[in-house]
């Protein structure tokens, strides 16, 4: 029967243990978090930029919120020495790269580095194709902890999963052979279906073309809008937040502890979206288990971007030990009430540790929408209306209701100190997200706003281009206990 086999499959996923998953190294058991300079600075990199950013990541509590890696993107090198080793640009990095790595480590951060599985990087600097071993050794000798590995100028070595796999595997082996734990972040833009194979060799893989700072603008440089991404032969760039969400929906469940679909770096704080749009962007990246890599200027971050990026109840979705992405349960197009009122609405849900669920109402229409999610739809994977879950009662926690007020954020940013903000900031250095979730920490749960009865409906007015996000917890846990497989 269709329902019981569906329920069995979802129980299998829920019961999956990290130890049973093939892992390429010991890293990214939950999606990696950090900062990368590309979205805000492009090629304009320097030791000063990394130092200033890293200091502030620590001072304003972003490190303790979980943002561990400071990643230097393209344009840092200056060719190769005659012995074949990559040479840093000493104008940008006067003391070389080992000094930068040391400085990051002194601050308690991991240091990320960039290269390309091609002849050149995307910025036309030296690539690592054919130089994998020597480059991996160089990075390990500098103390690098993370590699973002791009896909430009790959000499046509793509087109089938096997060709792409073979090209990216060489670096995976070279990194492993250094003996240093280096997080391997593959950036091949979803070419050749990396969700089918990259978990064997990498910790994350870019799933689409490059993001840009727009909610839903269509752009010819990011094609395949109407093919929903699965067979997009030309990933492109300038992909909007909604474009990326609607492309990854088909394979997002292929993430697993140690290997994640990467929806690209965050644009929160770069100025191209409204506050509601940035909240939606951050919520979806978190709940779809994308790496959370900030892409804004941390030295000039404003209060609203800060309170989005530090929202503990949302980060807890990303760092949840179950490691399961939520799934889209429905998508409807709504008719315009005026020339610009239409668009799409979606409902997503998925399981979290401790028998909790996440449910997100997403409104991409150009007007506020009264949205309704039935428990039968939220729990369609468990058997829909026939399931114990849909028949049970649930407590609802609003994951944005406890957002840090601007006044508190401005105090922290003005003083470069997180004093007196424990009411809003979670310290994952003191207690990991996993431990905090197991201890039912209020900061990670969100605000209790009520409950929904068996076979009932969760309703909310969702702002234009916004989300409502909920943690759902069974009122009587024992009622829906599944048989363990
Ligand atoms: C190549 O030369 C550079 C500059 O002297 C040096 O830093 C690097 O360690 C050398 N690489 C190898 C593999 O010896
Ligand atoms: C090398 O790979 C093995 C599994 O193939 C893994 O257990 C080990 O942690 C890896 N080592 C490093 C340094 O990545
Ligand atoms: C949600 O339910 C309310 C109340 O029944 C209704 O007015 C509204 O149109 C529904 N929303 C949608 C998107 O169907
Ligand atoms: C806080 O840090 C920023 C960025 O590093 C700096 O510009 C500012 O002067 C600092 N403020 C204080 C009060 O130290
Ligand atoms: C934190 O609170 C204490 C006691 O109320 C106060 O003395 C101190 O100035 C506050 N610190 C900041 C950075 O606001
Ligand atoms: C977070 O906890 C660690 C370890 O207990 C502590 O060293 C650090 O100062 C705390 N950070 C903040 C921002 O309070
Ligand atoms: C956390 O909440 C769950 C579900 O209500 C409960 O089973 C568990 O005992 C709680 N854990 C702690 C440490 O209070």
Automatic annotation (TrEMBL):
Which UniProt keywords are given for this protein, alphabetically ordered?
Answer: Disulfide bond, Glycoprotein, Glycosidase, Hydrolase, Secreted, Signal
Q: What class of enzyme is it?
A: hydrolase
In terms of Pfam families, this protein maps to:
Melibiase_2, Melibiase_C
- Give a yes or no for keyword Secreted in this entry: yes
Location of the Alpha galactosidase C-terminal domain: 343-405
Protein localization: Secreted
Entry's CDD domains?
GH27 (cd14792)
One GO molecular function term of this record is: alpha-galactosidase activity
Q: What is its main location?
A: secreted
Q: List, alphabetically, the GO terms of the cellular component aspect.
A: extracellular region
EC number(s) of the enzyme?
3.2.1.22
The GO biological-process annotations, alphabetized, read as: melibiose catabolic process
* Catalysed reactions, semicolon-separated: Hydrolysis of terminal, non-reducing alpha-D-galactose residues in alpha-D-galactosides, including galactose oligosaccharides, galactomannans and galactolipids
In the UniProt record, the signal sequence range is 1-20
The answer on whether this UniProt entry bears the keyword Amino-acid biosynthesis reads no
- Extract the PANTHER family matched here: ALPHA-GALACTOSIDASE MEL1, ALPHA-GALACTOSIDASE/ALPHA-N-ACETYLGALACTOSAMINIDASE
> What family does this chain come from, according to its entry?
Belongs to the glycosyl hydrolase 27 family.
Name of the protein in its database record: Alpha-galactosidase
Which organism is the protein's source?
Acrodontium crateriforme
């Amino acid at each position: 029967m269709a329902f019981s086999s569906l329920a069995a499959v979802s129980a299998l996923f829920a019961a999956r243990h990290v130890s049973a998953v093939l892992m390429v190294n010991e890293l990214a058991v939950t999606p990696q978090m950090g900062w990368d300079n590309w979205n805000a600075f492009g090629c304009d990199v320097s030791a000063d930029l990394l130092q200033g950013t890293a200091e502030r990541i620590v001072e304003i509590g972003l490190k303790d919120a979980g943002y561990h890696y400071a990643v230097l993107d393209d344009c840092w090198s200056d060719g190769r020495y005659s012995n074949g080793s990559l040479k840093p640009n000493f104008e940008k990095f006067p003391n070389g790269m080992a000094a930068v790595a040391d400085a990051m480590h002194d601050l308690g951060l991991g240091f990320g580095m960039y290269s390309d599985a091609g002849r050149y990087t995307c910025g036309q600097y030296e690539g690592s194709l054919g130089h994998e071993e020597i480059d991996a050794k160089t990075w390990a000798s500098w103390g690098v902890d993370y590699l973002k590995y791009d896909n430009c100028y790959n000499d046509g070595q793509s087109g089938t999963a096997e060709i792409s796999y073979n090209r990216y595997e060489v670096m995976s082996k070279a990194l492993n052979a250094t003996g240093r734990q280096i997080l391997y972040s593959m950036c091949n833009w979803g070419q050749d279906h990396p969700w089918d194979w990259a978990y064997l060799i990498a910790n994350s893989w870019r799933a689409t073309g490059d993001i840009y700072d727009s909610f839903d603008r269509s752009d010819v440089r990011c094609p395949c809008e109407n093919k929903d991404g699965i067979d997009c032969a030309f990933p492109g760039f300038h992909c909007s937040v909604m474009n990326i969400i609607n492309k990854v929906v088909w394979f997002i469940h292929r993430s697993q502890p140690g290997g994640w679909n990467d929806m690209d770096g965050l644009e929160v704080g770069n100025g191209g979206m409204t506050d509601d749009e940035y909240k939606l962007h951050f919520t979806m990246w978190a709940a779809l288990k994308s790496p959370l890599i900030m892409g804004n200027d941390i030295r000039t971050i404003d209060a609203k971007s800060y309170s989005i990026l530090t929202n503990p109840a949302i980060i807890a979705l990303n760092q949840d030990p179950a490691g399961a992405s939520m799934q889209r349960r429905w998508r409807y197009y709504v008719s315009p009430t005026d020339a610009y009122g239409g668009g799409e609405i979606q409902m997503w849900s998925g399981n979290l540790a401790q028998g909790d669920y996440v449910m997100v109402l997403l409104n991409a229409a150009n007007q506020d929408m009264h949205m309704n999610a039935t428990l039968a739809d939220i729990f369609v994977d468990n058997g829909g209306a026939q399931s114990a879950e849909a028949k049970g009662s649930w407590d609802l926690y609003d994951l944005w209701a406890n957002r840090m007020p601007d006044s508190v954020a401005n105090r922290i940013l003005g003083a470069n100190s997180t004093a007196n903000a424990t009411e809003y900031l979670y310290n994952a250095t003191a207690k990991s997200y996993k431990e905090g979730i197991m201890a039912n920490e209020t900061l990670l749960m969100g605000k209790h706003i009520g409950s929904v009865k068996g076979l009932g409906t969760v309703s909310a007015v969702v702002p234009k281009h916004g989300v409502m996000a909920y943690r759902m917890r069974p009122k009587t846990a024992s009622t829906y206990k599944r048989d363990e497989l």
